[in-house]
């Protein structure tokens, strides 16, 4: 009996209370490499892993930074974007004023730390906003981009949708702009163990018909709550 093959695409930053939680998608990839694709997010960087506890956890558990160093070296090999059936572009953050075509993404040198500016940085850090074109991002990296930018990018590249993560969405999934040419999919329920948000998974069948599955925090995850204090920007 034929069983339909399912491919899973992670567009999120890998964040968790422990190393195992952070790297569970990598373990899935090692076990099912033909079914798992991992995209790099802004937290897959040496700088942010030193700010948000991963570096300290490795030091505390192993007595040195070797585990952290090996893990962050792996980050450099993650791909920056993915295309589903030629019509859906998946990227962690958003668009860039330096990127007009998908071919320009393909030639970005990605085997390095995430830079502080430029197209690589923008793909990791940019956010959609209710504007027309571009604006400076309050994050200090990437850009805010609007409806006209997204519509033109989709038209030039024959896309129906830009699918991204990067921003907390209380309802788990949110379409942007009048033509719904961009969607934010958030898959971390009760983010930081305190936000109370729903999470979602967006799936496409062989006909590119979309289905959204919403879910909430599991009891097991609820019992793994870490300290409630944290860097505000983490939200």
TrEMBL record:
It comes from Citrus sinensis. Its EC number is 3.1.3.16. SUPFAM superfamilies: Metallo-dependent phosphatases (SSF56300). Keywords: Hydrolase, Manganese, Membrane, Metal-binding, Transmembrane, Transmembrane helix. One of its GO terms (molecular function) is metal ion binding. The chain crosses the membrane at residues 6-30. InterPro entries: Calcineurin-like_PHP (IPR004843), Metallo-depent_PP-like (IPR029052), PPA2-like (IPR047129), Ser/Thr-sp_prot-phosphatase (IPR006186). It catalyses: O-phospho-L-threonyl-[protein] + H2O = L-threonyl-[protein] + phosphate. It is an enzyme of class 3 (hydrolase). It comes from the Eukaryota. Residues 39-44 form the Serine/threonine specific protein phosphatases domain. Gene3D superfamilies: 3.60.21.10. Belongs to the PPP phosphatase family. This is Serine/threonine-protein phosphatase. Signal peptide: none annotated.
């Amino acid at each position: 009996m034929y069983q339909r093959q399912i491919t899973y695409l992670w567009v999120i930053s890998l964040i968790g209370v422990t190393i195992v939680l952070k790297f569970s998608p990598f373990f899935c990839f090692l076990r099912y490499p033909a079914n798992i694709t991992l995209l790099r997010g802004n937290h897959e960087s040496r700088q942010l892993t030193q700010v948000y506890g991963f570096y300290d956890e490795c030091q505390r558990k192993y007595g040195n930074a070797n585990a952290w160093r090996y893990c962050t070296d792996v980050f450099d090999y993650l791909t920056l974007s993915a295309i589903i059936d030629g019509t859906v572009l998946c990227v962690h953050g958003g668009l860039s004023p330096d990127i007009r075509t998908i071919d320009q993404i393909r030639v970005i040198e990605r085997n390095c730390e995430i830079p502080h500016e430029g197209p690589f940085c923008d793909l990791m850090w940019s956010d959609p906003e209710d504007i027309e074109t571009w604006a400076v991002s309050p994050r200090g990296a990437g850009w805010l981009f609007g409806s006209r930018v997204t519509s033109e990018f989709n038209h030039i590249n024959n896309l129906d949708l830009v699918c991204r993560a990067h921003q907390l969405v209380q309802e788990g999934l949110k379409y942007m702009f009048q033509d719904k040419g961009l969607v934010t999919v958030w898959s971390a329920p009760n983010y930081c163990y305190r936000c109370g948000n729903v999470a979602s998974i967006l799936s496409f069948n062989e006909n590119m018909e979309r289905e959204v599955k919403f879910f909430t925090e599991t009891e097991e995850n609820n019992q793994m709550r870490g300290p409630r204090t944290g860097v505000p920007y983490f939200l």
